[in-house]
Amino acid sequence: MWYSFFATDTNNSIDKRLQARPAHLERLQQLKLQGRLLIAGPFPAIDCEDPGNAGFTGSLIVAEFASIIEAQTWADTDPYFLAGVYQNVIVKPFKKVLP
C-alpha cells in the first residue's frame, strides 16, 4: 500500500538538512529503484523553487510499504529525522486515484 509521509522541519533546519541530505536522498533513491517511490520533495519556506537561506518547512514523501508499521519504522530511521531536521513525521495510508 502507498503511505504519505508529511514531515515538519525544526526551526532553522537548513544546516542540518545540508549535512544529512546525501544519506536522505540515498534512501529515497533505493525506494525509486525498487519502484516504490511515487513522489518526494521539500516545502520551500518562501514562494520560490530555490528558497536559499530561507530553507524549507518540511517534506512530503509518498512511498509503498507492506504495512503502516513498516512505513513508520522507515520514517523513524530517516537521516533527516535522526539528524534533527524533522520535528515530526505523520505517516498515513494513501490511496492514489489520479493520474
Which sheet architecture does the biggest sheet show?
4 strands, antiparallel
Mean pLDDT: 97
> Gyration radius, to the nearest Å?
13 Å
Across the major sheet, the strand order is 2-3-1-4
Q: Give the SSE order as H and E letters.
A: EHEEHHE
How many β-strand runs? 4
Tell me the fraction of residues in β-strands, as a range.
25-35%
List the helices and strands and how they pair.
Elements: E1 2-9, H1 14-33, E2 37-44, E3 56-64, H2 68-76, H3 79-82, E4 86-94
Antiparallel strand pairs: 1-3, 1-4, 2-3
Describe this structure as you would to a colleague:
The chain is of the alpha+beta class and 99 residues long. It is built from three helices and four strands. Strands 2-3-1-4 form a four-stranded antiparallel beta sheet. The chain is globular, with a radius of gyration of 13 Å. The protein starts with a strand and ends in a 5-residue tail after the last strand.
